[in-house]
Write a structure and sequence with these properties.
The chain is an alpha/beta fold. It has helices spanning 20-31, 40-48, 52-58, 64-73, 82-97, 109-115, 129-136, 147-166, 182-185, 187-198; strands at residues 9-14, 35-36, 102-105, 121-126, 178-181. 52% of the residues lie in helices and 11% in strands.
């Protein structure tokens, strides 16, 4: 049974390898509400008709070239890109999940819920390059890669995607209720701070 919360719906936006998923899992355990991250893939696949592989690849990342091409092609009335179709389906999933207390990681959820006037607590997590590279080196998806380049690529793709669908710059403090440096503060202390704010 979840605790009584100031904001039953919580969104987490984050830089790559800033421990967003780890903090979401910690909050979920402490607050007694579910968190959704990779779970989006199956639900979005059902709604969009795109494969889980497509959604895993395009569901929250967009290269600069893809963003430019997407903008150009969308000027043609008959064109709908896979990015657009996936975003539309993800937005529907976000709104459905927000009908009950939960934590939603990424997927422009902060923007989608604010735009739909759904009350939520919007968190942004970041850290310096040193901390994020160390974290990224521990992730299986980066095995055998140049870690600095991998972090830069993930950041750029995530920022392009966020900009494309929100018109905002990722990490702009005006769009969040709290921003935490997970490198300096530490994961456990970040969870403590957030619980102190969120629990009634």
């Amino acid at each position: 049974m979840g605790k009584e919360l100031m904001y039953p719906v919580i969104t987490i936006s984050r830089e790559y390898a800033a421990c967003g998923r780890t903090i979401a899992a910690g909050l979920s355990e402490r607050l007694g509400i579910p968190y959704y991250d990779k779970d989006f893939v199956k639900e979005t696949a059902k709604k969009s008709g795109y494969s889980e592989e497509d959604i895993s690849r395009e569901g929250e990342a967009m290269s600069r070239a893809s963003r430019i091409l997407n903008r150009i092609l969308n000027n043609a009335a008959v064109y709908t890109s896979s990015f657009d179709g996936i975003f539309k389906a993800q937005a529907e999933v976000v709104l459905e999940l927000a009908e009950k207390p939960c934590i939603i990681v990424g997927r422009c959820a902060d923007y989608i819920l604010t735009n739909a006037e759904v009350p939520c607590f919007r968190i942004f997590l970041y850290a310096d390059e040193e901390h994020r590279r160390a974290r990224a080196a521990q992730l299986a998806e980066n095995e055998g890669q140049d870690i600095a380049k991998a972090v830069a690529k993930h950041d750029a793709n995530r920022e392009n995607y966020y900009k494309q669908y929100t018109g905002r710059d990722m990490g702009d403090v005006k769009n969040f209720d709290i921003c935490l440096d997970t490198g300096k503060i530490g994961v456990e202390r970040c969870i403590d701070i957030l619980c102190e704010i969120l629990e009634k």
